[in-house]
Every structure is written in C-alpha cells, then in structure tokens.
Design brief:
By secondary structure, the protein is of the alpha+beta class. It is built from five helices and seven strands, in the order E-E-H-H-E-E-E-H-H-H-E-E.
Length: 212
C-alpha cells in the first residue's frame, strides 16, 4: 500500500486491440454533483430515521469536537475497507490510498485488473460494513452509543458515489469480465482474455489535475 496526494495516478492507455472496452458511465462531475450529492442527503436522512426508529442510540454525550473526530476516523476506515477488498488485500504497492485536497476527495485505488465480483464488492463494502451491519447490530443488541449512530449516518452520507458506482458496474459490466481503472474511468474485457499480467501499467505524465 502506498499513499498519494492529488488525483488518481493514471496508467497508460488500455488498447482496444487487447479487448478493453470503456464502461459506459456518466461524466464524473455529473456523478458527483447531480447524482451523488442529492443521494448523499437521502442516505443520511434515511439512515438517521432508521437509527432513531429502530435502535436505542441517543445523542447523549454528542459534541462538535467528538463528531469531527468520528467523521475523520470514518473516512479513514471507509477507504481502508475499500482497500481490504482489493485482490492483494491492500498489502501491495498496487493499492493506492489518496487525498485530492483541491477537490476534497479521498480514494482507494487499485492499479491492476480485478474480477467483476471483486470490483463491485469493493465498491459497496464500506456501505455494508460501516452502515448496514452496525445498524443491524445496534437494533439486535440494543447498543446506544452516539458514536455508533454517527458512524452509521456519516458513512451513509459519504457512500453515495459508491452506491451509484455499484449499480453502474453491476448492470454495465458483463457477468464474466475483468475490470481495470484508468484514472477515474473503468474499462473491462472478457474474462476469457485472462489477466495477462498482475503488474500495474506504468503511470503516464500529467500536466494538470482534471476532474472527470
């Protein structure tokens, strides 16, 4: 695993003659501002309602400093969960944990090919691990800490792009395909082509940091 400051490092082109096809996705600015932002509010509101209605979690002890600390920790754990699903479990240099300060974007990126199953699971895993499972556990065991409630709601709010990406990938990728990212875009090819090399392609030089 390595750390990176700035946009996702881009790799060399994935040539069509090698069978790579670009996944049909909305432009990144549309995903972030038109789709993900409203969905973020919906997920936060829905998770808050579920916490209030179906758990014993209360705001007792809640304070601004504590909430900020929980938010930062939730973001960090969220990205680590993404990385843990990578084929190398996040332990090799192919896994990149990054922060793009000018866009306030955190990411966990894998510089290699993955199966569709691993790719889609990796996208949705933080939402399952930090929102759905804690919500179910709090309901089942009667946990009442505001910290748990904050993790559930905050993680739901930052998972909107993941939820969108999960559905885009689930319906847009053939069942038997392998996937590789180039920057913010995803490419796939038939699993019959095989993963010819587990070595990541070399990064290309960039003159600027584009969003989308």
């Amino acid at each position: 695993m390595r750390l990176h400051l700035g946009s996702i490092p881009e790799i060399a082109d994935l040539p069509a003659e090698d069978g790579w096809v670009k996944l049909r996705e909305p432009p990144l600015w549309v995903v972030r501002w038109v789709l993900a932002l409203p969905l973020s509010l919906v997920l936060a509101l829905l998770s808050a309602v579920l916490v209030i209605r179906y758990t014993e979690i209360t705001p007792q002890g809640l304070n601004g400093g504590g909430l900020l600390t929980v938010y930062v920790a939730t973001i960090a754990i969220h990205e680590l969960v993404h990385a843990a699903i990578h084929p190398d479990r996040g332990l090799s240099e192919r896994t990149v944990l990054g922060l793009w300060p000018s866009r306030l974007v955190f990411f966990a990126h894998y510089e290699g090919a993955r199966s569709k199953g691993n790719f889609t699971l990796g996208i949705i895993a933080p939402f399952l691990v930090l929102t759905i499972l804690p919500l179910m556990a709090a309901h089942q065991f009667g946990w009442s800490s505001w910290i748990l409630g904050a993790v559930i709601v905050l993680n739901a709010s930052v998972s909107s792009a993941d939820v969108l990406g999960f559905f885009i990938a689930s319906f847009g990728l053939p069942g038997s395909s392998i996937v590789q990212n180039r920057g913010w875009h995803s490419y796939w090819r038939s699993a019959a082509e095989g993963i010819s090399s587990n070595k990541p392609l070399q990064p290309i030089a960039r003159d600027d940091a584009r969003f989308g």
